[in-house]
Amino acid sequence: MTVRENRVRVAAVGDVHLDADVLGRYRPALEHVGEKADVLLLAGDLTRHGTTDEARCVAQEFGGLAVPVVAILGNHDYHSDQEYEVAKVLEDAGLTVLECTGTVVDLDGVRVGIAGTKGFGGGFAGACASEFGEPEMKAFTRHGREVAERFGHALAQLDCDVRIALTHYSPVPETLLGEPLEIYPFLGSYQLAQAIDAAPTVGLAVHGHAHAGSERGTTPGGVPVRNVAHPVIKQAYNVYQLSSVLAPV
Ligand SMILES: [Fe+2]
Ligand SMILES: [Fe+2]
Question: What distance in angstroms lies between residue 76's CA and the mean position of ligand 2's atoms?
Fold first, then answer.
């Protein structure tokens, strides 16, 4: 059994909601991230209102680190209808920004594939939206399905040894524990978990968005899920070892 992937250390945080007044909050810990992790994932809601001024704060906070930084945007980062400009600011600072796309980073000889999407709501088994009735309801549900399908395709297509799924919305209800049940359909979708479980060798799924949720969950297919929203993990980032998912060699 190869154990190389167990050496891959993944740092992750979401929902930092940066603006000028909290600039520098995370930087002291980030200066040491290279000693503790091989890659840093940002799970969306990096800004408060999705402005380019706030994005420049994110670029200043998370740019120039010792490890690759791979990010997705969250719903807050879309609020000002400037998501492309926000992503451009982050990419100009050296971050990789994913949206239904993927990237592969070589970490100590292990090709780690990361596919990312903001994702969307829709709910979970037994309590989910359906593509039925009014056009608005069908559009809401259809968007969640289409995003999950495109994300799943990006995840499965990665040419790598082990995969990481990076989303803003949650793929499972377990990591929402602590949030009001009534808003679960706005916090995640079972279709994201279906996409994750359909891809091979997924070692970790990371999400944010659920500020009052719980850190740990598992997809129905057995992939570990971690809610890394800053209000949940209460530190600059958490570090996870990729679980052993590769076939024996
Ligand atoms: Fe958030
Ligand atoms: Fe959010």
Answer: 6
